[in-house]
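Field: COMPLEX_INPUT
Field: COMPONENT_COUNT = four
Field: RESIDUE_TOTAL = 1596
Field: MODE = joint
Values follow.
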Amino acid sequence: MTERVVLAYSGGLDTSVAIGWIAEQTGAEVVACAIDVGQGGEDLDTIRKRALECGAVEAVVVDAKDEFADGYCLPALATNALYMERYPLVSALSRPLIVKHLVGAARQHGASVVAHGCTGKGNDQVRFEVGVGALAPDLKVLAPVRDFAWTREKAIAYAEQHGLPIDVSKKSPFSIDQNVWGRAVETGFLEDLWNAPTEDVYDYTQDPAVAREADEVVVTFEAGRPVALDGKPVTMLEAIQQLNARAGAQGVGRLDLVEDRLVGIKSREVYEAPGAIALITAHQELENVTVERDLARFKRQVEQRWTELVYDGLWFSPLKRALDSFVDASQEQVSGDIRMTLHGGRAVVSGRRSAASLYDFNLATYDEGDVFDQSLARGFVELWGLPSKIAAKRDLGKS
Amino acid sequence: MTERVVLAYSGGLDTSVAIGWIAEQTGAEVVACAIDVGQGGEDLDTIRKRALECGAVEAVVVDAKDEFADGYCLPALATNALYMERYPLVSALSRPLIVKHLVGAARQHGASVVAHGCTGKGNDQVRFEVGVGALAPDLKVLAPVRDFAWTREKAIAYAEQHGLPIDVSKKSPFSIDQNVWGRAVETGFLEDLWNAPTEDVYDYTQDPAVAREADEVVVTFEAGRPVALDGKPVTMLEAIQQLNARAGAQGVGRLDLVEDRLVGIKSREVYEAPGAIALITAHQELENVTVERDLARFKRQVEQRWTELVYDGLWFSPLKRALDSFVDASQEQVSGDIRMTLHGGRAVVSGRRSAASLYDFNLATYDEGDVFDQSLARGFVELWGLPSKIAAKRDLGKS
Amino acid sequence: MTERVVLAYSGGLDTSVAIGWIAEQTGAEVVACAIDVGQGGEDLDTIRKRALECGAVEAVVVDAKDEFADGYCLPALATNALYMERYPLVSALSRPLIVKHLVGAARQHGASVVAHGCTGKGNDQVRFEVGVGALAPDLKVLAPVRDFAWTREKAIAYAEQHGLPIDVSKKSPFSIDQNVWGRAVETGFLEDLWNAPTEDVYDYTQDPAVAREADEVVVTFEAGRPVALDGKPVTMLEAIQQLNARAGAQGVGRLDLVEDRLVGIKSREVYEAPGAIALITAHQELENVTVERDLARFKRQVEQRWTELVYDGLWFSPLKRALDSFVDASQEQVSGDIRMTLHGGRAVVSGRRSAASLYDFNLATYDEGDVFDQSLARGFVELWGLPSKIAAKRDLGKS
Amino acid sequence: MTERVVLAYSGGLDTSVAIGWIAEQTGAEVVACAIDVGQGGEDLDTIRKRALECGAVEAVVVDAKDEFADGYCLPALATNALYMERYPLVSALSRPLIVKHLVGAARQHGASVVAHGCTGKGNDQVRFEVGVGALAPDLKVLAPVRDFAWTREKAIAYAEQHGLPIDVSKKSPFSIDQNVWGRAVETGFLEDLWNAPTEDVYDYTQDPAVAREADEVVVTFEAGRPVALDGKPVTMLEAIQQLNARAGAQGVGRLDLVEDRLVGIKSREVYEAPGAIALITAHQELENVTVERDLARFKRQVEQRWTELVYDGLWFSPLKRALDSFVDASQEQVSGDIRMTLHGGRAVVSGRRSAASLYDFNLATYDEGDVFDQSLARGFVELWGLPSKIAAKRDLGKS
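Field: COMPLEX_OUTPUT
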């Protein structure tokens, strides 16, 4: 029986060429698998047909947009996941979902190998391969671009020689990855750290510097999940899509940073994630209102570790699952409304209300109605500072 | 010999009245002590004279602006100190400096008591009293507003009755504290969490929504310290002041959040800190370029703990000093230039260059000149994912 | 209707006297509530009768030993809870359970106040009062020993004067608290840090220096819970009790340390906890075998925080509950056998076997059967060290 | 000019053979470099001569015992470094020192390559190669055992064929690494996790189960460094050596655990480290007496991270250096005497005294002399528990 390889298929030049190339080099049959995580572009049926025309024995296409929003973006929102306090894990979130479907296709179509088109200096190879190892440790992985130095030039030559149905003339100056949670842009002139991004780098967001009317939105959360915008019920996917449109129109969510890759190098990355940034901004402030202080403080450490793990390709690791349990427990009371102004590149919270609020007007107010018993403070302050005071007596040379 | 009390003196109604009141109630002589940390308002000489007219036996005034910038704002910048990831510790930074001078005045003028005008439900009482305990554990503390329920109404009556030289008619609807690092506003209609701040709340910043030309600035750092703006040398104080003006003119640095106070309640706080936010933004990105990954990751935990400690009044604690040693060591290589656009309420980094950069173009580039050895990746990825893979074999019920 | 007070009742002098005293001082009816957490001593019926003879209108007695073992000791075992890496939280675990029953009794008997006999410089007052606040924020708390300076001398005089059925002649030189998880001893000559404990300090453990035969035990765990000793099924309570006897007979579990109390002071504490220490030792090693590395590393931080929280009286806090979710998730695979030698004050693991083991002989062995692919190592090592190497190039002044 | 290779030389079979083999395979000249870190065995001169007889062009031998104790063991003691809370980093500490001398020899003798004899599945390859990369990023590394599958059988054949002056008949059933800080044993029947170690596994320690007289020792520390034993001044090396003898004679410091290796597998390790365990036990308790609570709590996190870094081969990393600064700051007041009983496999602290003690008898005592102001407690407890209480009001559905 002929061996089968499931190939992560995008419909583009590299992976279209890979179908035939893998078949030639390995003698295996290639099953192409394309996953829609909201990256836009061609419809799945077009992609499916192209895969077959390029020589795939099977072509699996999956609309996974809702699954991505619910199972991957929502946990990232609950965790306020911002790698290096900035980057909302756009590509890092989609990779485990894609891996899950690649493994599913391998099981369904009897494949023993999974192939991807990542290079050897990025994070995505790690996310693909560690993910496959964690879901299907028996499957082998093929990474032709990395392990056999497959280049764009060779791909073009191969496509032309074999008459593949691909337009090889289009070449972006950038390397781009996008999904409904955001868009990542790198390489090109951005590799010079002193160069600012130009407007043509962006696609999800408008120029924030252009004068326009502000947009105001009320996001309603239930247990950490956005369930309505301006009072109209939304799915997680709809919440992201609608805020991508509305926050994107105001230039919200552009990010430009030097980033620490797992493989040990620093790289320059530009992102745009209008919906993600708007949602995280709202979610953080609702947590400020509804989450108890000590829980909030420790959750920041959990958030950092969760984010590093996911960035580093360990979505399916035991630690990630245990951290999820913590985060789930923290979200029980994160319910309420956040009013936000989207304008000039900023998502600014202007109001919050919640039946689960821990803000107690009567304890907080300095006006009439104050019920805070100030006589408690003296004892608290004295014992709070006692360890420092005892140390001071020693360190100042007194008894 | 008559006992002496050093009073933290602002020149305003409450502390002016407190001079006479403390003298009457305790029979002690009052030494007024006013510290300029860049809060603006009246000059120190005017304040000094008023203190004496109100009955102080001595009036100590100190221009501590440079000391505050160098000894308190600079460590906060090195630590990227943002409480709850938002608030740059404006008041929390000035309190230990004021305590230091109060204690100094007590030693100089033979006082055995330090008095402050804080209420019993805020953080500042903790910062004052824990600070005094840590610098001078033998001194007693008097907090008449808290411990004797001193109110504004009583203060006005006392001032009028004794003909004190204070204008009692002015009453801000807000409670305000400000210094060169920023400005804090609370109470009034802001105590309703659904109310957005109005423009009259702000003083350090212009409305970011008004159309205006962007401002571009290059900040030069040496070992974590800003040493030049647009190539012109500045002291730390000048860096803050000039960026307060330039970033403030662009509406940068407005913050509005629900905050966890040390005394256990949540409060609504509005801040503006244009210079602080611009400097921290630049400093964080320069660290992204110059600080090694593992150090950067752990430093985020140190930053959170340092910030909580300082917010919680423990500036002079042994842990704070040990964390300072860590932060100092982390800043050795944080040198270089950050170019930033100030506009529309945002400080956006657009370029970075540094002789201490860890970004290596030849390792990062996907173009010609790439020296990254991709053959190393396969082994790395495999061993990186091995613990997850071994766990998966068990958890998936296979061997 | 007369107000009612639920009093935490031990049957001893102080709380027996408190029944009448509270009634006299407050005019309230006193409901005595005694909880058996395995402290030994008199039986519950004797204690119940004494409470009524001392004037209680109701006397509630509860055998909570199994509830304590399952709901309080077991989570502590799952967390390997050792405060300051030494003390297994003996008293800190029983307090929340007692609070729960006090609150239950208050609800059942219509009380509006809960009273306890703790002093003002220990941790237990915090655990009682914060616990009551978290379970029944409407209840008031009365702490006569602390707030009204109730002393032992006054208690003896009151007991003699009122003819209470208490033997006032017995006076331990130590202050002792004990339950099935362990025993805490303080004060007396132990307050001098240079004094070693004498044998009379101990009750749960024999002198480890005496020569005797070693005892070997196999503890079987399922999902973190001990379910059998030497193959015989046990409840959690039985596991603790049997190991208290067997490990105690070998002198295991004596602890002597200077401890940081929540109220800001250091105190000298001596503990003995033979069953707890034996179980934690076994549990830690089973985790070494069955828990993935990154999960194990982060769990140590969770363990520390959980332990501090419980020590600091925050058993019922939101953070504690969220940490429990993490710990629960971590225990899923902690199943298997640990063989341990109990001898000479030490519990030493000598064997482990588990169907959930992550130890893979074929990956670990240096002998025949080795399947570890050493060719993967070079790439791993190179990329693992790349950030340090890049930093070194900069820091050593080379390129 | 002929290329030169510096080889980490032990004097044993594998590295003796490697001298000739490397010369043959690469055409390079081999410089042998042997470092004495207290591993005992043959004297350095014998080793030096053997290296030359085996074909080395130069043989560098270094007595680095004091350097190892002062520069590597002492920081580990200050950090209470116990990997997985058990293993005192025996081998992990010596590797960076050896690397430093290898690099020094390479510079001195004009070598461009460093060679080591580690396998590809252990931690030491990482420590060597990452260390070389961090000290001399221009040097290449050769790992013949790993990269060319060099085996013991091939080594014996080569030695016999070339008449090398090595006794090839001796073969320990174990793989052993030892230095003055401890001794590590693995492989053999220990690879079965259910097997207990037998007495022949141990060399630094006597059987703790044998009856013998206890030994009592007083260790004096200054700023975290042991400076005297029983009042007699010692160097760090002497402190370790003398306690290795005295604690070893009592069976102190045997460890047996399943350990998480950096390369992703679990392995069974047996260690003995009598001096290290005795010193760490004493040091921890002196810290309990002299280090302020918050500093002690955060230091535990630093200790864990420091230990993981060093275990993972990152001794020369930027994070390690910054953590050292924190630890150094924490040790300033760690001065005083600890009295310890060494007996039956246990090092038990029985007394502590220190001029830098933070234990205040008058605050801690329950007897006469008590100066703790218990009236402060009520306010402290109430505000300490306020966040939990406010959350409880919400979570219990009340207001």
